[in-house]
């Protein structure tokens, strides 16, 4: 999507990998996620080439998570399926809107 395409930020990737290695599967992180009492909308694309484990674990760890997987989208669902993305957000807002 970037034009010109930017090179991979290796330093950033290393920092993120280091953080993930320190926290992934940590009981306190899991407990903190399970304690969150807020609605969470997770929108992902079925054609994302990245491993599904991160999205799966978030969906499992967050007690009020609602997941929408857009079949025709990849890693950038808001850009690859903007209509599906807008509908998912609008539906979630309707479900969580306070009633008077």
Would you give an account of this structure?
With 100 residues, the chain is of the alpha+beta class. The chain has five helices and two strands. It has a two-stranded parallel ribbon. The longest helix is centred in the C-terminal third of the chain and has 15 residues. The protein starts with 9 loop residues before the first helix and ends with a helix. The mean pLDDT is 86.
Attribute tags:
single chain; about 100 residues; alpha+beta; two-stranded parallel sheet; about 10% strand
Q: What can be said about this structure in brief?
A:
The chain is of the alpha+beta class.
Write the layout of secondary structure elements.
Elements: H1 10-23, H2 27-35, E1 40-45, H3 53-61, E2 65-70, H4 77-80, H5 82-96
Parallel strand pairs: 1-2
Alpha plus pi helix count:
5
Spans with pLDDT under 50 lasting ≥5 residues?
none
Number of DSSP-assigned strands: 2
First-to-last CA distance: 42 Å
Element order, helices and strands?
A: HHEHEHH
For the residues shown, what is the average pLDDT? 86
Structural class: alpha+beta
């Amino acid at each position: 999507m970037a034009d010109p395409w930017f090179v991979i930020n290796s330093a950033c990737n290393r920092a993120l990998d280091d953080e993930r290695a320190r926290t992934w599967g940590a009981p306190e992180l899991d407990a903190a996620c399970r304690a969150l009492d807020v609605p969470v909308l997770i929108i992902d694309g079925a054609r994302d080439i990245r491993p599904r484990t991160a999205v799966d674990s978030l969906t499992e760890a967050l007690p009020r998570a609602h997941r929408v997987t857009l079949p025709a989208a990849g890693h950038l669902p808001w850009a690859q399926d903007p209509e599906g993305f807008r509908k998912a957000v609008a539906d979630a807002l309707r479900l969580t809107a306070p009633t008077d």
